[in-house]
Records
---
Amino acid sequence: MKNKTKTTAEQGVQELFIEREFEAPRELVFKAFNDPELLVQWLGPRDLTMSIDHLDSRTGGSYRFMHCPATGEGFGFNGVIHEVTGPERMIRTFEYEGMPERGHVSLETATFEPLIGGRTKLAIHCVFKSVADRDGMVASGMERGVTDSHERLDALLAKMVNQPA
Amino acid sequence: MRRDVFQAIADPTRRQIINLIAHQTLTPNGVADSFDVSRQAISKHIQILAECGIISIKQQGRERYCYVQPKKLDEVSDWLADFRKSWESRFDKLDDLLAKMQNKTDDNNKSK
């Protein structure tokens, strides 16, 4: 039984909340968010290859990630890292480089809360520059579609079965 | 001018109007009575809601009544559901990764 992902986007405000619990201690969940080798294994969208241009995961650091399709040009997104307080919190900015103009930056706060039984509750809070920016971000998640998501997960699972740890 | 369900619900007064007529069918004047703003302002909001397809206005005898079109509001919940699914698929992958990381940690502890 999978843990449920809860998304909240109240109409007319520029905030977005994502919540999810994990069956792992928060040190591990935090690590999966900050270690480049681990991050690429789960953060990328299904139909694109994710690569890390750089990730300096510390207070005052910065990052730039790339999403590349099999053919053609990819797109990047980047931000500065305002705070990394392991294993409980990270705060950073996010800007998608594919926008027609610069300056559409959002602020993301991720908190990792320890739960009983070595579990973790992740809460991501995003604040966008405008309601339109927030709605655009949600709509882009929709455009990527859902049909291929399970195929990608299946492929990853198959790979892990073939390569037992 | 953008006229869709998201523009309809972007304004707090319009959200209140939707809530109000979702519970009872009202005339535009009946709607205006529930607000402190002018009838003209409410009339404009009702016009926008009608153009966005959120409400329909039906003539009954001498009065016009506002009805909510609940199917239009479903567009909003679908919109967020697909966004959630895109994160679900990422978190599913993270679940598998975390399980793998925990197995490794257990192995290391055993070998110590």
---
Amino acid sequence: MHHNQSLTARAIFLIIAVVSPGHLLAQTNPKAIPSLQEFYQRLVEHYNPSSLPSEEERMRVMHQAQAAPAEEISRALPWIFTALAHQDDQVKLVACAALLAISLRPDSAALLRAHIKPIGDLLVSPNERLQGIGVEILGYLKPLPPPEAAAPMLAFLKRTDANTTAQAGVAGFLMKYAPDNPENVGAVLNFLDRPLDTQARIQALQALGTQPVTDPNIIDRVVAALDDRNSRTRFAAAEVLPRMGRRALLQAQPELERLAEDPDQPDDVKEIARKALEGLTQSR
Amino acid sequence: MRRNSIIQAESRPDEPSGAPIIRLAAFTIFVAIFSPIPSNAYSTYSLASLESNGTVVGTAVTDGTPPPGTNMNHTAYATATLTSPKGRKATGSMQGTNTTHAEALLSFDPTDTGDYLEASTHTVYCPCMGYFIHNAPSQASVPVPTFNVAYSSYIPVDHVSGPTGCSVGLHSVLSMIYMGDALRNTYRTTESIQITPDGQNSSGFYQNTGNTRNYGYGSPANGSTLSQADEDGVALDCYLWNNAGQAIPAFSYDVSYPYSFQGQVHYSGAASNPLESLSPPITWDMRTVVDETNPSAPTAYVNYNHTCYPAHQIKVNGTVVYSYTPPENDLAYIAACLSQLNAKITGQTSSVQVPPQ
């Protein structure tokens, strides 16, 4: 009885396996969704600048890279990094799509730790878009960016010909993950002392305000920005100080009080200075 | 462009006033027998117009010219009274031989827009008969429409995942969540301004950013949406509400008037998440064209260029002229949009009729 049932089950399984539409599709439909490995292998082996993957295909790959098992990612990584080393920046960007998605995974540091060097190379690319994406990939690694990620970030911050908005983010990154490293602090100070445009300076202040900061010299630079000639920069400095912690607020208190009472300041600057001072009272 | 509006009063003189009934009766006979002009020959009207600098002009015109061949002159009087929507008034009076016109002017006030009303009185003095003929008053109006052009970007869902996590003590998440704007009537970024193409004037520029709030372990507390239960008031503990900040509103705008019937508002800006040091900014570059070729049915269209996340919208006087809602709200899509792996959304809308204000 049991033997008969088993035979019947095997027969049914065989029939299903043979006539299954999905099985047929995988065997015969060339448009079946390729695995990550297949996608990137095809990209580099059949490179054609006039038929690069569309935005929809890149998004599909990103979703695949987020959801795929770690083993599938590991199998695909050699091909992804081959694409990243391609001479065509458009191919590099397709590789970046997968790497950015992988960097947002919970296991991204484990998956990419052995590949910090080629990712770091993006930061020395002349293409500012690639620089920015490289910074994001390194900075998002989970559960924490590995220590090896700090070196390319630091080198990037020291450059004077790079994407200043991305550099501003790196200043915040270094102060978050290695605030006690004197070389990091020195690079951040040098960056803040550069003649940055308003957008980059605001970005830098904002990035520094994403975590408590204790270095008095860095706090000094933020306090100095309360006296910047651009009202938006003054606003930014007052806005971020409470998030930099009580020490920063205490150091800034006289300047914040002056700003809050200065009739020549725009209303929103006075308001944000008052709000920052309230933070000082509340954190006692 | 000078926009005019004329309402011609009936050219029928009123009854003479101020005379005793007996004298009136005698004069009526006199007029009937000797009057050189028919009583309905006068021309009176009002005119309201808008100058290119936004000044509104009300004009009262009285033409009491006797018919050709009449060897006499009349004295024509006109009084123009112009009233703004908010009740500002200006008056002007003139007199002249046979014809005259009086003007009343109100300067442009961006806070006082809408329909301006000109109310005119017209009188003709006939020396031959020795009395004033009061013609029916006339009216005219001219609209001074203003347009509020408002841009905003917003997260169209309750919350989204962020790129980084947090870990404090026992509480740890690999991806903090961020409060969205859906059903909260909030925004990520906004710019707005009031323009009056007729006056080539703009006022009240406003820029701002919304509060950015992130949440750690345990959120959303009710399992689906962020609520009061997530607001524990304890910062930087990676548990429920974790941190708050405000992106810096440092946006740009310019207003131009390439034609007297057209105003263009150009907004551009960038704003990044104040709680994430590496997150690239959302950006926008939007030009809204308000056209008053047909003053009673103004239109607007938008040239747009912005990141594919979050939602972006342009309203003119409350009417949606442009609206973009992202197709996805997941972390990979947001990252692809902000890092500009995905192309910016660009194009131009068709014209939409907008209400004048």
---
Amino acid sequence: MAQSLTTPTTGRGGRRTTLAGRQSRTGLLLMSPTLLIILVVVVFPLLWSILISFQELKLIQIGRANPFAPLTLDNFRLVLRSGALWSSLWTSAVYTFGSVVVTTVIGMVAALAVRKPFPGRTFVRAAFLLPYVAPVVAVTFVWKIMLNPEFGIVNEFGQRWLGWSEPIPFLTQSRGIWDLFGLQIPVPTALLTVILFEGWRYFPFAFLFLMARLEGLSSEPEEAALVDGATPWQSFRYILLPQLAPVLTVLVLLRTIWTFNDFDDIFLLTGGAAGTQVASVRIYELLTVQRNVGAASAQSLVLALVLILLLGIYVTVLRRRGERV
Amino acid sequence: MSRSYSYDTWNRDRVQRMLFGIARPVVIGVLLLWVILPFYYMVLLSFMPIESLLRDPGRLWITPDEFTLSTYEKVLRSVQDGGQGFGSFLANSGVVSISSVLLALAIAIPGAYAVARLEFFGRRKVNALFVATYLFPAIVLAIPLFVLFTRLGLRGSLVGLVLVYIAQTVPVAVYMLRNYFETVPVSIEESARLDGLGTFGTLWRITLPLSLPSIMATGLFVFMIAWNEFLFALLFLVDRRESWTVSLGLAQLSGSIEVPTTILMAGSVVITLPVIILFFATERLLTGGLTAGAEKG
């Protein structure tokens, strides 16, 4: 659509360069504020962060932080040798996998459930977006109070109606035992609770994506399948799901990247205790508790490298689908 | 053989249809309950004195004689007057969010227009840069920015926070606006050019008014990010209570045991309401075919 403005008229060789030159100058001029802020607040700090990870820098020294301080590999030695890095990356991986599966499945179920019109559909769709819109600090606070072992409504309910013998410390217990038909199944209570919270808070994102795609679909293939005698499940599995596959790919990758870096939700719910210390919470602790800026920087770079790997996959997938990135 | 097969699938089809027919309203009901319950509980506790909660924690309703508004009064009043100072947190968050919206739009609109309409060196690479910036983990940037802002004396000031929010939102803002600018017919802009408007004049008088819904959507997005953001507020402002934003204020106060839960619930309601009201107020505005019929005259 932009062609007629962006492609200069052919056959006028002399004007072509000036028009293109003028456009190029105006374009860069209009872009410059955007580029400037990204340069100052994103690119430059990132480069400095790489430098810091090779320098010795404690929190009390940062007022005098010097980019030309001597370089050392001590931070990486410290970070890579401590088991905490690998265990935190593993926790991040489990947390990410669980959250992405839960949010995608719930989002899909919700999108399919409200697909056909029914009274109150607008209200239901709006309500489904609430958890995603509300401030994370407020919703984590309510969840914490609801799950509180002393006066939380969930434990009250469980003890009164579900026959729990004692309150479950949902957010402070790293390993609980589920007694299922005489089987003693160990479960990571806090990690599961945090994943469930993620499912609550981020399913609207999957819901929005999938709903938009569902509305854009033609109903003809499904009608044809109906005529041919397909059951509802067959129609979903062989007609609908293949058409949703591209959206699902993008959705899963985006959520994976975001969940892998997630700091707020876990920090606010558990503070990283009880087996929920994901990589970003560990970086925060290195910075504020151990007060070792260099080591925090080194660990954050390891996280960034893992992420760049994920981004690479993301871009490749989109390229293969022929989208511009 | 074939008869029994067809009978069998017909049967399975019927069972599935019945199952899905029942499942749909049940699923909607359960999901709705699950989504709403925490919000309902938040509002419920915010009108309750703390004694009622501790006396009988399992209730999902409130009696008229225990209904109170004093929780809201206490949470909003300043610390000097014996409150929790949420009034000033709201003011801080308001200033930060509104400045972020205005500045981010002022920066992103020209950028998005350039990417949508003008051919310039590196135009294609700009997109990749934006995607990378947007998806990059905040925690990785948090450390160098913490050091940098400490050295510049910007840590503890709201200005530093606004800078970070702009940088975090401008890439998406450019992306959102560009997509919309591309749907504005070039022919309208070309007629404006013929009538003697330059690039800036066309952008200001033609493209912007036509793109108002998308600009509002983008502004809302920036506002919500700035209002809800927690990590950078925590890192930059934690030592200075007078500069706390709503998110940081609630997080810090909920960590201490001195402030009663129901008062903080009132605080949660107060900080959640603005985003939700804005979200639902603008959702309707965003659907509008403003360009329809613009070329006829």
---
Amino acid sequence: MSKYSVIGTRVHRVDGPEKITGSAKYTFDLTLPNMLYGKILRSPHPHAKILKIDTSKVEKLIGVKAVVTGKDTIGKKQGIWRRFPELCDEEILCRTKVRYIGDAVAAVAAIDEDTAEEALDLIDVEYELLPAVFNPLEAITEEAPQIHEGVELNININRHIEWGDVDEAFKKCDHIREDQFVCSSQAHVCMETHCALAHFDYNNKLTVWTSTQAAYYIQALLADMLGMREGDIRVINPYTGGGFGSKFELDSAQFCAALLSQKIRRPVKIVLSREEEFTATKRRTPMYYFLKLGAKKDGTMLAKEVRVITEGGAYTAMGATALYLTGFFSSFPYKYPNYRYDGYRAYTNTAPTSAMRGFGAPQSTFVGESQIDMMAEDLGIDPIEIRRKNGMTPNYEVPGQAFIQSCGLHQCLDKIEEHIKQRGKLPPNHGIGIACYGFMSGGIFNWFDTPYAFSSAIVRINIDGKVDLFTGANEIGQGSNTTLSMICAEELGVKLDDIRIHSADTGICPPDLGAWGSRETLHNGNAVKMAAADAKRQLLEFAAAKMGGLNIVHDLDIRDCRVYLADRPERGLSYYDVVKEATRGKDGEAIIGRGHYTPHRKGMISPAYSFGVQAAEVEVDPETGRYKLVNVTTAHESGTVINPVGIEGQLEGAIMMAGGYGYCEDQPMDEGKILNPSIADYKLIRSLDMPETKILEIDTYEPEGPFGAKEAGEGLTNPTAGAIANALYKAVGVRINTLPITPEKVFRALREKEAKKKKK
Amino acid sequence: MKKELKLTVNGQPYELYVKPKTLLVQVLRDHLGLTGSKRGCNDSSCGACTVVLNGMAVKSCSILALQADGAEVLTVEGLARGTELRPIQKAFLDHGAFQCGFCTSGMLMASTALLLENPKPTKEQIKEGIDGNICRCTGYNSIIRAVTAVVKGEYKEGK
């Protein structure tokens, strides 16, 4: 008999039946009686003073019910770093100045979308154009225009990480490499664009249905920006059509819908267009990387020095965390005895850059894994061997930063080595490249300085044995509602079908910081497990009393809806009978379990880390530079697997997204204007481009995780770009240091290589 | 000036008056309340609004409602027989062929049209059949596995 009844089994998603019948209602689908449609006017200029906004013509248009500009706000600037006012720099509705093409300047609410659209054309905004700067390397020079008052050289924030004695260590190295890389931007491309339906009622209470990753953050940030108390705001996250990091900050749809509704006391819905989604929401941070790596002849890496300048865009957003994490993960997943990182985030007149799946780590993994392959080649060492020599192991401390308990990196390397051997001799112009990676399993950043626990859950057992699970976790498609229901069912000893989950509704669910930093399985999973255990304990107290003379709670357990003696499983009671009796015995008070989780003394980043190794095989056409991703095989260790179907989905989806980052996704700009703001022009990996994918299972156990589990969502986005770069080098001998690695770049590099050969 | 539109959706005949510029997806979602078909773009490039129109996969944001006059339209809401799920839906459930679910209606309808046209597609033909539909979550392979399972006859109609 398996150790678990629910965990590790292949189950249908709990939201599955609703989603495959078209019944699931997203914010995008919601309407309310008397509802108005809102639209947002955005700046066409990258940098300009707002001299005047004239809305008089709009107010006369029949069907327009409300107009708001920056003057209608309380003048607060938003930011998630509430303890650092200088990092709260985004007004959302600009009052005096716009800083990128797409910055919001006004919003209207009208009886239908057409009227709202028409109204935008009638708003006259008088701008005084200012000189703008787009490239971060230029933004930090004396000549560049200042984007935010008082921010010298446009340096938004800098981060420093250091341990050991880097300069001394470089002196002891036999070989040192210095390389430069450029990591491009990437759009999240959630299928559901940002949207919100806000209803400010006559009791001065605000309810917002919105497509979000962090209902609690939206509640708190809206309170700040509207001058309200958090308790007067209820944020509900219905089904959400993807997030990938783009939906845990307050966005213009949420703020403008709420502000308009506050003004007119009618429900207002705003859905961003796909073009707005590309140009006026956040995106992945472009980074300029300068790397120095030193090693001994035998491949032991002694020192690494990393300098990064990131394109921040117009506002701080979550960029400060991306800057820190790219520095931290630049040391991953290796044991550098000496390490130094300096990162600078520059304000630019471009769309703000922020969190996106992997949060700085896809960039650091691309550059780091490219460089370690170059180092291995210089030293004449096998790429797997050099990684094995330096790779992290269990119970390793990253000095002053993190403590790693479970770590299956070496098992992953073994499995990938086996896979490559099995593949045998490759056809011509094929190459397999590998990349190692690691990621946090639940970021522990308390940007908000909230007194609440990071995650919490409530389990209520109804008298018929059915269970209501309340959690602040946000299901955005990643499967947290299924995984958390599974954890609850397992801990309580009931069937998955007995659980009804209520999530991400700040009016009824206990707070949770949201779906970011791969938090939900470990953080919220622990809270749910604790709540279920609390409820179970209450049941077992009664059962123990009933089962004759036993007074030790731990002698009883529940499994498959049966309460039994752990040592004599044949003696038992029906779970359903116990629930009824226990409830009666408590004078009718429902059995309610509570759980919460906040990591304490777990370092700077996360209570646990996942690891893996990926091998990508490419086939290159040397004539044109076109290449195909043939196969991507991944050995990922995420501790105990709670939901195997979920992991497969996360892994394959990550390959689509991370492969796209490596291969084709890009946001080229001209003077701050994004040139491809549509799905037709923004190149994604589609079904025909998708490689074969394979998962190699690795067995590990994370003591800090629920049932030994850790993350399987974001980490998987880290390796693919680096693996592709290394595979191309193996296949045709060209090394591309800038993302995305388009066929054009491969073509040019091949020509250059040929020309060099001829010269010789 | 509104015009008369007669069409059958999921077996139900409808008579409506719509503006000439109204898109089919707007009729389905806004007039008939069939919000299963989604809109992820405005230029027929994402496929979330795919429906089956007279047996063919059509992006319902790319045709005017009046062009569908007299047509038989099948949307995701009409896929199940009563409350009995169809093989393609069961296969999507078993194979985890969706995550956020926003593209799923379009994927199901594109797959349905593909199988109507060609009940035994090869893997490559399945990939082509859904190539007009963007999914940002799954990476497509689980969808391809689900359709393949239906093609192999692993799911029986009406059970």
